[in-house]
Specification:
Elements (H helix, E strand, L loop, with lengths): L1 E5 L6 H12 L3 E5 L4 E4 L6 E4 L2 E2 L5 E4 L6 H13 L3 E2 L3 H8 L1 H10 L7 E2 L7 H7 L5 E5 L8 E4 L2 H13 L4 E5 L7 E8 L2 E9 L14 E4 L4 H14 L3 E9 L2 E8 L5 H7 L3 H12 L12
Helix pairs in contact: 1-9, 2-3
Length: 301
């Protein structure tokens, strides 16, 4: 097969590993910089071009769209779909999971464990919002933040009010969340492919940090997850409609709660922590599932 990886940098660990894993399985691998793609949206003959050339003959794509270019990146994925190219994660599913609020709303409908979360528009509702989630300490987070940026722990009501006021002043969309203190600055990343958790790791924030993101200096270790955690992760990916997903869970006193579902989970942390060939498993999933025009719209909402 000819498999395209949508990535802006061919030197990133995840991109390199996917290229390597594909070549090992005798596929032709091409790295396509989605930011450089442009589209011709003509009826019956949708096309994508790059550097003056028509992109042809791609059987499947693996989108690795950074959060900063979600809009353009998902438009390129959608255009591939219009051309009948199989995308391992479809554009609608990527968009769905990128908005943390939309994602939590969809997960809540399916009864998936979540931290209690509130969302409001008016400053008049701040008191109620804080009351919903049980008062301070609370976590306040931007809807489209990533890598821990825009996630704040407010230890007191006063601090929470100040942060909320600041975010409102910046016209930023944010939500207020129950702080899962018992997680102790650790979370669990479940790497889901299809209907299986193929690898999982525990990430622990560095000393004094409640955010466990590896980009913030967290460290990863191998972990055994419970059957409940496993099924929560698989169901969450399914609700989002993602075939490949990084589902992040916290261990709370009331069972696993989902933090977020990532549509472009990094491979470096998980492969190094587990020693597994996760890139190879992504390619194998494509081998089994890629059919022309098969990308439909899965998930709901
Ligand atoms: P990002 O998309 O920036 O990674 P997350 O919502 O995943 O944002 O939050 C980053 C990290 O902060 C999480 O991995 C977790 O360790 C911590 N965290 C986020 N929300 C909570 C919460 N409600 N309770 C406890 N820890 C949290
Ligand atoms: Mg996260």
């Amino acid at each position: 097969m000819k498999i395209g990886i949508l990535s802006r940098n061919r030197n990133l660990y995840s991109t390199k590993r996917l290229v390597e894993a594909g070549k090992e399985r005798e596929h032709e691998m091409v790295v396509i910089n989605h930011k450089r793609c442009y589209m011709n949206i003509t009826s019956h003959k949708p096309e994508i071009h790059i550097d003056g050339k028509l992109i042809k003959g791609v059987d499947a794509i693996i989108p690795r769209i950074g959060a900063s270019i979600s809009f353009y990146g998902t438009a390129v994925v959608r255009q591939f779909e219009m051309m009948g190219v199989y995308s391992v994660n479809e554009s609608v599913a990527i968009t769905r999971s990128r908005d943390k609020l939309r994602a939590l709303q969809l997960l809540s409908r399916k009864g998936i464990g979540l931290p209690v979360t509130g969302f409001a528009n008016s400053p008049d509702d701040t008191d109620d919002l804080l009351a919903f989630v049980g008062g301070a300490p609370v976590v306040i987070k931007l809807l489209e933040g990533t890598q821990g940026v825009g996630v704040v722990l407010a230890e007191t009501t006063k601090a929470a009010e100040s942060v909320i006021e600041a975010f409102r002043g910046l016209k930023a969309n944010f939500m207020v969340q129950e702080y899962i203190k018992e997680a102790g600055g650790a979370d669990i990343r479940c790497f889901v492919i299809g209907d299986k958790v193929v690898a999982s790791m525990m990430r622990q924030g560095k000393e004094g940090e409640f955010r466990s993101n590896l980009h913030r200096g967290g460290s990863a270790t191998l972990i055994r997850i419970t059957p409940e955690e496993r099924s929560t992760a698989v169901r969450s990916a399914k609700v989002m409609g993602l075939n490949v997903a990084g589902v992040d869970l916290l261990r709370s006193n009331h069972g696993p709660v989902v933090m977020e579902v990532n549509s472009t989970p990094g491979l470096e942390g998980i492969e190094k922590a587990t020693g597994k060939d996760v890139a190879g498993m992504v390619i194998e999933f494509i081998e089994k599932n890629a059919k022309k025009g098969k990308t439909g719209t899965k998930g709901q909402g």
